[in-house]
Amino acid sequence: MAGNRSFKEYVAERFYNKMFAAIQDYTDENYDGLDLRLYRVQNIGGIELSDIEVKFVSVNDLPDMKIKFDIVIEAELEVRESNHRYDESENCRQWFMLECYGDLGCNLDDFAISSVTEYANKNKQPSPMSDSLVPIIYKEQLESVATDFLRKHYPEAIKKPTAIEPQVLAEKMGLTVEMREITRDFSIFGQIFFPCL
Question: Taking Cα atoms as reference points, which of 77, 113, 118 lies closest to residue 97?
Answer without folding.
Answer: 118
